[in-house]
Design brief:
Length: 872
């Protein structure tokens, strides 16, 4: 399967045309004398854009047309180079603004003299940009002339849209529940009604990818009978290599779900294998437990026996449930014959498909579409993932031609050699991909930069999209985060994402490994997950590199990837560990926009990092050895996100932060006793600020104002006593998170002095001084949507005025053992969708009764019996 570069180009061309039309670029081009060149480029690009959608369709239907693929690659290459040139113009414009705003008269003179002898000389820069633009136009003119040989039709608008289902905070109901009742009962019977007395019985579930093994295991795992029988339940997704240390860490973490997972796992990684083994044995000894090992690929019996010996310390009756695609693995691990999970019957398959393709009660209105759907279902081989994704891609689409196009597409006749692709699952996924709007396609492809079974966070993927200008400009009073969330909701709606969980300030989710395989095939050439060498002839096309491991970085030829735009280390706890690698990155990869060096081992960074003028995102998160940063970082005037959280040895922030005038997101960990208020006050674009592990800080900001700040997170600042929560200091604040600040006290204020705040999200964790909610929160009566309080031991009461909140959708109260009362009239919360009160079943039952019909908890899918009625 070839990389479908054509599918990205339409949205890329649209983005470039919008940038060319921006007032800032027009003014800069006039000053630099390249205005006419940009106008010529705009006109030629418009000609090419008009045929790109038709070019994509032709590529989709004819993979062997190498001449067309070559033409599309030429378009991609010149658009990429043009984007770099336009960004250089914008960079120079921003740099001049910074110099003008922050230089004294004397410094201005010195700067002008220095610039005269450098590449920043206006005459030199103007000449260089004019030459580059002429080269771009020459290449583009030739490409435009060649377009006629392919007989393209003009299609200048992308009509693909995603009709989103109504989404709730609860996870989407798995369609695989249809037709799996007998399987569930059989597995549960095997687990809790055995005739042997073995202290560790192992039950394997075997089936094709996408057939629903994991969903069946979840149905079993969450069954009330299992809860009653096994006091301890653990779920571990293995996937990939069977690294015994990582598997042990996952098992221990799963057994301690109440503990902060990120910090806990990091602490476990610091232990050696013997310490981990002892920790695991002490955790499981004499316990009656159920352990699920999901998606096992390991065929090495030695590794399996080593793990089995470690966990055989539980009580008699412990069980292990294993899911795998491989019969030999199941035979090696199992103590009883495997449960073979087959595809759904045609009737159940149609129920699943219809459930995802139509709104509730709608299928009976379109019998002709159901008939076409029946033919589509036959091609899916009873695989629930294929049925769900194809059904979702046709949701709320009533054009017969669209349905017939899916049914009759030639892709069903393509042969895929890999055994894991049986059941036509990848054909179905690709057809669903074709139905995506262009703006989603490259976003989806970038998921391939993360390893299979990666636990995604919306912040990480949104940051990657944002750095590459894949998100639309936010409208008034909205942020890039909002745009990213809309894209994620659309991908969820078409079933390309799963296990979606809302935690207030973001979302966590996963991707089925076959969907991940589809993304990897789509982005075959441009995106590389580095697990082995990359062929020399393909290096020129690579734009994004991801290193799930950090072995051999010293020898990796990073300097050969001249057009690289992304470097990331996606595996938690594994970062860059080579000085030579970093120097090569910062000196050779001049067009980097996204540089993730989290969990690395550097004490400082090279000065050359300040020359990455295209850089939008820089993460140094959890660099525990980092002691100082070069001031040259502050030359990155296009930088939008700078993450320094977890840099616990960082003595001071770099000088000149005020020059980062594009910075929208800043995370800080430092040993400083006071933050540079005058520097931070000048960050006029700053929307998100996270202060973490700054144990020497006692107060934040004093009297400075952050007019654009929407999100403030303060965590693990043990000596912090006060926060600037006055409307005058943070007038736009929408999200506040406070976590584990031992000395911080919220001022309750007077009932008649309610602050005019506009909070939407409030999360409080481990704030032992909290007795009740502060009065100033009442100022958010018409805006607060999400309230989460956890591990606040001294919280006694939730005030009656909480029931007056007009927009509150979620209330989560967990780990607060001394809470005594809940608002009596909580039933007034007509907007409430999710109510969780951990450890207080009577209080929760009473609250749920009071909410009654006022709680609008929606299911995003129909139930099986409802679908049957629709088909009758």
């Amino acid at each position: 399967m070839m990389s479908l570069v054509g599918s990205f180009l339409f949205s890329m061309a649209e983005s470039l045309i919008a940038q060319l039309a921006s007032q800032a670029l027009v003014e800069a081009s006039q000053v630099l004398g390249v205005y006419n060149d940009l106008q010529h480029f705009t006109q030629t690009l418009s000609y090419i854009k008009a045929v790109l959608l038709d070019a994509e369709q032709k590529q989709n239907h004819d993979y062997q047309n190498f001449e067309l693929s070559e033409w599309l690659w030429l378009v991609r290459d010149v658009l990429s180079d043009a984007k770099n040139v336009l960004d250089e113009v914008e960079f120079e414009n921003l740099r001049k603004k910074v110099i003008k705003a922050h230089s004294s008269s004397r410094n201005m003179i010195i700067t002008k003299v220095n610039n005269f002898f450098s590449s920043s000389n206006p005459l030199v820069f103007r000449f260089r940009m004019a030459r580059k633009m002429k080269q771009i136009n020459t290449r583009l003119d030739k490409i435009a002339a060649d377009r006629h040989k392919f007989g393209f039709s003009i299609v200048d608008a992308d009509n693909h849209i995603v009709h989103r289902r109504e989404l709730t905070y609860s996870s989407v109901i798995d369609s695989e529940v249809i037709g799996r009742e007998r399987d569930r009962e059989k597995i549960i019977k095997l687990l809790i009604h055995r005739d042997n007395n073995k202290n560790l019985a192992i039950v394997p579930i075997v089936g094709l990818g996408g057939v629903g093994k994991t969903s069946l295991a979840k149905l079993v795992f969450n069954d009330e009978r299992i809860d009653a029988y096994f006091p301890l339940k653990m779920w571990v997704c293995v996937s990939g290599s069977f690294d015994i240390k990582q598997v042990i860490i996952k098992i221990i973490s799963s057994a301690n779900e109440s503990i902060d997972a990120t910090t806990y796992r990091q602490n476990l990684r610091d232990l050696d294998i013997q310490q981990l083994q002892n920790h695991l044995k002490s955790k499981l000894k004499c316990q009656m437990f159920l352990l699920v090992l999901d998606d096992v690929w390991n065929e090495d019996r030695v590794k399996w026996v080593e793990l089995k010996d470690l966990i055989q310390v539980g009580a008699v009756g412990c069980q292990l449930l294993v899911t795998t695609r491989n019969h030999s693995i199941a035979s090696m691990m199992g103590t009883i014959p495997s449960h073979i999970l087959v595809g759904l019957s045609l009737e159940d398959s149609l129920l699943v498909f219809v459930k995802w393709a139509f709104k509730e009660g709608e299928a009976k209105k379109y019998p002709h579409l159901v008939d076409i759907g029946r033919d589509i279902v036959k091609k899916c081989g009873g695989i629930p993932l294929a049925l769900r994704t194809l059904g979702s891609s046709l949701f709320s689409k009533y054009d017969t031609d669209e349905w017939e196009c899916v049914r009759d597409n030639q892709i069903w006749n393509c042969h895929i050699r890999n055994a894991e692709d049986t059941g036509n699952i990848l054909h179905a996924l690709k057809l669903s991909y074709y139905q995506m709007p262009c703006y989603l396609k490259e976003c989806f492809a970038l998921f391939s930069l993360y390893p299979k079974d990666h636990a995604f966070d919306s912040f990480d993927i949104a940051s990657l999209w944002r750095a590459h200008d894949l998100l639309p400009p936010p409208i008034i009073n909205q942020t890039m985060k909002y745009s990213a969330n809309q894209f994620l909701f659309e991908l969820l709606s078409i079933s390309f994402l799963q296990d979606f969980i809302d935690y207030g300030i973001g979302f966590s989710f996963k991707m089925h490994d076959l969907v991940h395989s589809c993304a990897a095939r789509i982005a075959l050439v441009e995106c590389k997950l580095v697990t082995d060498s990359i062929e020399g002839r393909r290096r020129v096309f690579v734009r994004h590199l991801s290193f799930p491991e950090n072995k051999g970085l010293d020898k990796f030829p990073i300097q050969r990837f001249k057009k690289l735009r992304s470097i990331l280390f996606p595996t938690a706890g594994i970062g860059a560990n080579s000085d030579a690698f970093l120097v090569a990155c910062t000196s050779s990869c001049k067009h980097l926009r996204f540089l993730d060096l989290s969990d690395s081992t550097y004490e400082t960074l090279p000065q050359s990092i300040g020359k990455l003028k295209h850089l939008r995102y820089l993460s140094l998160e959890n660099n525990r050895n980092l002691k100082r940063l070069p001031d040259s970082i502050c030359n990155l005037v296009m930088l939008e996100m700078l993450i320094l959280s977890g840099c616990t040895e960082l003595d001071t922030l770099p000088k000149g932060l005020r020059k980062l005038i594009s910075l929208q997101h800043l995370e800080i960990t430092t040993k400083q006793f006071a933050l540079p208020e005058d520097e931070i006050a000048n960050l006029s674009s700053l929307q998100t600020l996270r202060i973490e592990f700054c144990n020497n800080l006692e107060s934040l900001f004093g009297e400075i104002k952050l007019h654009a700040l929407k999100v403030l997170c303060v965590a693990n600042c043990r000596n912090l006593k006060s926060l600037p929560l006055d409307i005058e200091h943070v007038p736009a604040l929408e999200t506040l998170l406070v976590d584990n600040c031992d000395t911080l006290e919220f001022s309750e204020g007077c009932e008649d002095q309610i602050s005019d705040m506009r909070l939407k999200v409030l999360t409080i964790v481990s704030l032992h001084q909290l007795v009740t909610l502060p009065h100033w929160l009442q100022g958010s009566v018409n805006t607060l949507q999400y309230l989460s309080i956890s591990s606040c031991n001294n919280l006694v009461v939730l005030p009656q005025w909480l029931s007056a909140m007009n927009c509150l959708k979620t209330i989560c109260i967990t780990g607060c053992p001394n809470i005594m009362s809940f608002p009596n009239d909580i039933h007034r919360l007509a907007t409430l969708e999710r109510l969780e009160i951990d450890g207080y079943p009577e209080l929760l039952r009473k609250s749920q009764q009071e909410v009654g019909e006022s709680s609008h908890t929606h299911s995003t899918t129909n139930e099986p019996d409802e679908v049957e009625e629709e088909l009758e």
